[in-house]
Here is the input.
Amino acid sequence: MPLYILCNVFRRCTHVVGFVLPGICLIAIGYVGHGHIWAHVVLLVVAVGFSGVAVSGFMVNLLELAPPYAGLRLTSSIAVYSAE
Here is the structure.
């Protein structure tokens, strides 16, 4: 029996991990005391690191909608977004 994961299940899981865990870390920064600077740094690094997981869900969405044109769509959307 092959082990595989459906595309939309993968996308949902990466969005949950990519948005919920950074949110929890950023909320936890507010509850850490002022004397624990390293805890602030670690929580911020973890939040930024896990926010990158959400990008993989976005990339799978581009590949799923139009596989032959995914590269063109990605570069054009980045160009339009960075021009604003």
